């Protein structure tokens, strides 16, 4: 369960990553009858963060990248754990936290790993014995 401090941090991270200006932020907070995120209850912060998270176009790109990374790791015969795969994506993105990777970089990484996965599948199929 998230603490209030963690949720406030998540709230501000989402505001920045989605490019929400202070006027829009004030409107969002006014829906709860407050002027500051610190005045919100924990459940209200969670609800607000979850609604903003749904609007983040990077969510689908992150899931798509993790899916291709899982297939890539499977073909290599390595660990398919999500934390391990996120670490690979972070290193490939230049050390950025997985949730901070930009949409353009997520798409670029997806395409790079997609090409590698296709190449690995092709090589595996070529080396398989042919049925007569």
Question: Could you give the topology of this structure?
Answer:
Layout lengths: L3 H15 L3 H9 L11 H13 L3 H19 L5 H11 L10 H25 L5
Helix pairs in contact: 1-3, 4-5, 4-6
Please describe what this structure looks like.
With 132 residues, the protein is mostly helical. The chain folds into two domains: 4-54, no CATH class; 58-127, no CATH class. Helix content is 70%, strand content 0%. It contains six helices and no strands. It has helices spanning 4-18, 22-30, 42-54, 58-76, 82-92, 103-127. Helix 1 (4-18) runs parallel beside helix 3 (42-54). The longest helix has 25 residues, at 103-127. The protein starts with a helix and ends in a 5-residue tail after the last helix. 12% of the residues are buried.
- Largest sheet data: none
What fraction, in percent, of the residue positions are helical?
Answer: 55-70%
The rough form would be described as elongated
Q: How are helices and strands ordered from N to C?
A: HHHHHH
Classify the secondary structure makeup into a structural class: mainly alpha
Instruction: Tell me the count of domains.
Output: 2
Q: Give the overall pLDDT as a whole number.
A: 89
Number of helical segments?
A: 6
Specify the oligomeric state: single chain
Distance between the termini: 59 Å
Features:
132 residues; mainly alpha; 2 domains
Give a short synopsis of this structure:
The chain has 132 residues and is mainly α. 70% of the residues lie in helices and 0% in strands.
């Amino acid at each position: 369960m998230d603490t209030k401090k963690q949720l406030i941090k998540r709230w501000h991270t989402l505001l920045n990553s989605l490019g929400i200006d202070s006027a829009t932020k004030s409107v969002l907070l006014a829906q709860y009858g407050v002027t500051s995120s610190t005045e919100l209850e924990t459940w209200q912060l969670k609800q607000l963060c979850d609604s903003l998270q749904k609007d983040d176009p990077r969510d689908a790109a992150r899931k798509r990248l993790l899916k291709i990374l899982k297939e890539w790791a499977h073909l290599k015969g390595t660990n398919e754990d999500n934390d391990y795969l996120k670490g690979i994506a972070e290193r490939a993105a230049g050390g950025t936290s997985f949730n901070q990777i930009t949409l353009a970089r997520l798409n670029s990484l997806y395409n790079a790993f997609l090409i590698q996965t296709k190449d690995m599948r092709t090589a595996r199929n070529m080396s398989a014995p042919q049925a007569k």
